[in-house]
Amino acid sequence: MGGRVTPRPAKIPDGIWHVSVESLVDFERVHWNERTQLEKAAHVISILIKISLLILTLIIFLLTLALLSTAFQLVGGRGIGSLIKNSPIIKNPICAACVGMLVTVVLQSSSTLSSVLVAMVAGHLLKVREAIPILMGSELGASFMNAFIGLGQSGDRAQFRRAYAAVALGDIYNFLCFFILLPLEIFFEGLRHSFASPIQRLSKLMVSPIRISHKSTQEIPSLTVLTDPLLDRIIQVDFDALDDALEDDLMEPDSVWQESFIERCINLTTLEEFTFCSHTHLFAYSTLDDTSIAVILLIASIISLILTTLIIVKLIQMLLEGKLAIVLKEWLDKKFPSPFRWATNYLIMLLSCFLVMIIQSSNVIQSALTPLVGMGVVPLERLFPLILGSGIGASFTGILTAFSADPGQLKE
Asked: What residue ranges carry the coiled-coil annotation (predicted)?
């Protein structure tokens, strides 16, 4: 009798990773020409409703991120200047990277954190070399949302495998940047009296041609024109007073702040309502302090963030059923003619970058790509340039924040 033969592990069929166009076709679906006029009208109306719901959900998603940012500014608005300046955690690159990761996990927007860091550097709360590890950690924090999105397709083994392959592709890219560039930053940080860190030196070379003008810099418009009116209905904050409090706290840690940074129609000391008040947000007549209101907004924003993310995934799956999924897959499978075939991925990267620049949230794009890869509509080969493009586009948010800052601090 021979020895026991160890079975070889089963090879994963190629069809798991590459989904054919035929597999996306639902043969049980009634053909368009075979439908009645009433069925055609109902189908078109259902698609329009789904698209409208998707756009509405994306706006709510962006509004949620804005609410999170506002709530965190209210929570940390008092005394945060001296806390950041003298914090040993921020001065330690490893701890600073962990802070960036945790903040991004909570905010679920690395773009929001990058905008906050740009504003803090411009306000002399942070130095450039102290902000670099936080940005690196934020890229790792952004990976948690993709992992959460991938769980939404755990019902189908093949889709779940492809979805988590998409998650791993973005995570490996972020981890390589973290474990290669951060040690270089730490090494050159110890030699900062002789050498500047590679990223800091590169950033100085990039901004050296900029000529600073002392004229006021106008804020570049973005999609916040859609969310700001809704945000003003929920809460209105005196950000100028909040910024002044941060600067005063940085210069004089024992300075006294105003009673509330929220625009109110009531005196918190005497509880008397103002006769003429133009504020119409939800907390205009609230007697709660700023911290309590911020905690309420934080809880509501986190719940809204989870719900909107799940709804976005479900709506994308419903919209990309049938003909639309086939058209999108055929378009992504196309390549330029032979001499220019190499430019295909660069074009896809450029389109992804442009889309993130418009939406100003790379999480929205990556959250949409994960279920698309799981469904087999977006091939894994096309995912990498899409991820690179979204990363480049995400930096545009920080550039917008820099241009909206004081012109004298533009280079920083």
From this structure: none
- Rg of the chain over Cα atoms, rounded to whole angstroms, equals 25
Position 27 scores a pLDDT of 47
What does the pLDDT look like over 237-271, one tens digit per residue? 877 777 666 555 544 545 545 667 788 888 777 77
Query: What whole-number distance in Å separates Cα of residue 264 and Cα of residue 286?
Result: 8
Q: What single-letter amino acid sits at 306?
A: I
**355 pLDDT more than 50:** yes
- 68's CB contacts (< 8 A; 6+ apart) are 106, 107, 108, 109, 112, 297, 298, 301, 302, 305
* Distance (Å, whole) CA 37 – CA 54: 26
Tokens found for residue 101: 């990761």
Q: How far apart are the first and last CA of the chain?
A: 77
Digit-coded pLDDT (tens) for 22-35: 555 554 455 667 77
In DSSP terms, which residues pair with 266 in a beta bridge? 273
Whole-angstrom Cα distance, residue 404 to residue 306?
31
Long-range contacts of 202-207 (CB under 8 A, 24+ apart): 203/128, 207/410, 207/411
Residues 6+ apart with CB under 8 A from 152: 163, 310, 313, 314, 371
Of all residues in the chain, what percent carry a pLDDT higher than 90? 0
